[in-house]
Amino acid sequence: MELDPLIISRLQFAFVISFHAIFPAFTIGLASFLALLYGLYVKTRNKAWERLAQFWTKVFAVVFGMGVVSGIVMSFQFGTNWSNFSQATANFIGPMLSYEVLTAFFLEAGFLGVLLFGRGRVSPGMHLFAAIMVAVGTLISTFWILATNSWMHTPAGFEIQEGTFYVTSWFEAIFNPSFPYRFLHMGLASFLAGGFVVAGVSAWFLLRGHEIEANRKALSMSLWLLLIAAPAQAVVGDFHGLNTLEHQPAKLAAIEAIWDTESSVPLALFAIPDQENQTNHFELSIPKLGSLILTHDPNGEIKGLSEWPRDEQPPVWFAFFGFRIMVGLGFLMIAFAVAGLVLRKNGRIYTNHYFLQGLRLMSVAPFIALLAGWIVTETGRAPWLVYGIMSHAEGLTPSLTGGMALFTLLGYMAVYAVVFASGVYYLTRVIHMGMEEEKSDNDEVQSAMRPMSASHVSFDESTKPARS
Amino acid sequence: METFDLSVVWAIVVAFSIIMYVLMDGFILGMGILFPFAPNEEARDTMMNTGAPIWDGNETWLVLAGTSLLGAFPLVYSILLPALYIGVFLMLAGLIFRGISFEFRFKAKSKNSRKRWNIAFAGGSMVVTFAQGAVVGAYIEGFETQDRVFTGGAFDWLTPFSVMTGLGMMAGFALLGATWVILKTEGHVQEWAYQIASKLLWMVLGVFAIVSLWTPYIDASVAERWFGHIHLIWVLPALAIASAAALFFSLKRGHGKLPFFATMSMFIFTYLGLLVSRWPYVVPPDYTLWDAASAPGSQLFLLVGTLIVIPVILGYTSWAYWVFRGKVRPGEGYH
């Protein structure tokens, strides 16, 4: 069988970016949480806030480090596997990606060191300022990346001369039609990821009776955040959907597995889409609800996939099931946030065993939802790399062979497996150690550059885990 | 501002980022190459401690050079990366292993896991250095292109010449690493570094001679550049050789600081020599930096931010080196 460099390159990109996305998605939310914790400490001088801030700073350091390491590959991959795309769109994506790198380095140069190692060396106010700057910086990084990605979905502010894109308006290109929705959607997703991890770890500490006061505070805080963020995400997601209907109707048809153009479209709760025969099997659906949700009108018309030639239809399975996984988990997140409100009455959020265990398990939910969501949006634009203008096949590196692509795909999988295994293993050790005071903290002279040196947990020694 | 000016400004920015990377990551990669030859585990700890506080700041310059190429010279980015596909992968994989072993080796307490991180550190450094050296060789040899697209094969970059530059780079970085160890340590670690630096110097000079003799024959335009009418450029190899002489005598007399700076200066003049061999071709043999440039508006848009951030990075880097100046003694680290 001939190896297809296109499929393998897409798989490789998907693998590398999915793997990488987990870390920034977590740190974006966590950075803001840290800023809040330092802020509360500065305001109230309550030691519990400080201990929480210190513990989560350690976690932040490890995750940030993993994000940096896994992200290096991203900045080269555009050239190695997608050189035609890079060359054609460089006038826009080049400055965007470079600005992201500059932002990240500016941050690392200025404030990350102060955040990670500044305790006892700068005033709490200065420390808080550094935490805020890091949080703002992660959001600015998100801004550049999502502007680039959104532009590929809904390109704007450019003209094409001899196959090359030239920017005619930076404002229109950056603030392209899908950007505001995608930015908000991803921002909220990051806050949900941060919130559920904090809630889950706090719940686990409470179950073990570790640092009760501080962890109650953290749990309560994160549940308030989730109570706002989880329902808000549903609303933002809905608007994002309307935007997709307007700009990428084929993606929407794939998400809902709608084959023929109709009005009063039902909403398929479940189905086995069959792209071969352009139909669904075992469909279970609610009448008119599809039109109501998608167009905000029960009789609204939605274009079916049959409007597009077969080679311009996105693969339905990824969009259809990915979307249902994302939305299902989204509702589960809302349910947990609401349950938190109900249980709060008698302080049972701190003691209800089932609730705490449930929260523990829910820590992974936002990450699965986030990856599912990205799979929906990225496969849903197939076959387009720059929507409606440049296809995946046109963007591929011409000299790339299937063998080369396979070699690097397997290579990156092996490398990332080692990074991920070491990182997650180490992270669980950091969490298991809990919020013990560190004695060795002052031995550290001033190693302001290595994120992970913010944590003193050893890699393999069997040290005592958090008191239970 | 005209297109011409911006492209030259960008060429300088990118060339500067690359040499900063080579000088600053070079000695750390060099220590990785020397790792297996270090006298004992304590010496390895000391060596790693000299690099621990600064290594990831140094890597900044590589990523900056990469994205700057995409932003300012997309043609270079979109021809070189496909042409060097396998080499780029090896370099990135090596950098990742080197990076995580910096993080985790210090946290590894048991002998076995420490050994594993030693191997990752040394192996990663060697692979990265060889790949980078081979890239230099492949670059001098030029790339097979048609209509602004690379048309060669996966292993075109791997030639006798590029293998030699790859090995030469390993010797060169090892020399940088050894002189860095001389600068930063004392006692038996430093003595070992003196010995190995003297041997490495001869290896590097050997490679230097071979490359210098070989390069003009690769391409008529390179030969024309060196044996044509611009005699002034011979200053560069002359200065490189003068630096080598300074290194030789400073090693002999047991200078602490001079060997490192003499080696750096060798690298700088060799690098400038390579640049003039091909200038103004950035994708040899077909495309000049003006052919490769992105739109003037894009170059300008990005230049603003870059010119603000580079001084900050430089300032921060100098500050970090200042904070960690002086000798590192055994058992004393920042981890």
Write a concise keyword list for the protein shown above:
heterodimer; A: 468 residues; mainly alpha; two-stranded antiparallel sheet; two-stranded antiparallel ribbon; 14 helices; globular; disordered C terminus; B: 335 residues; 3% strand
Word description of this protein:
The complex is a heterodimer of chains A (468) and B (335). In chain A, helix 2 (47-81) packs parallel to helix 7 (212-247), helix 4 (124-153) packs across helix 6 (179-207) and helix 6 runs antiparallel to helix 12 (365-379). Chain A is globular, with a radius of gyration of 23 Å. Chain A has 468 residues and is mainly alpha-helical. Chain A has one domain (5-261, 303-454). Chain A has 14 helices and eight strands. In chain A, a hairpin with a 3-residue loop joins strand 7 and strand 8 (390-391). In chain A, the strands form four sheets. A two-stranded antiparallel ribbon of chain A has the order 1-2. In chain A, strands 3-6 form a two-stranded antiparallel sheet. In chain A, strands 4-5 form a two-stranded antiparallel sheet. By secondary structure, chain B is mainly α. Chain B has one domain. Helix content of chain B is 77%, strand content 3%. Chain B has helices spanning 3-34, 41-51, 55-72, 74-83, 85-105, 111-141, 160-184, 187-218, 220-227, 235-252, 258-278, 289-292, 296-323, and strands at residues 145-146, 149-150, 281-283, 287-288. Chain B has a two-stranded antiparallel ribbon. In chain B, a hairpin with a 2-residue loop joins strand 1 (145-146) and strand 2. Chain B is globular, with a radius of gyration of 20 Å. Classes of the chains: A mainly alpha (468), B mainly alpha (335). Chains A and B meet through helix 2, helix 3 and helix 14 of A and helix 3, helix 4, helix 5, strand 2 and helix 13 of B.
Global mean pLDDT of chain A: 89
Percentage beta strand of chain A? 5-15%
The largest sheet of chain A has its strands arranged as 1-2
The major pleated sheet of chain B works out as:
2 strands, antiparallel
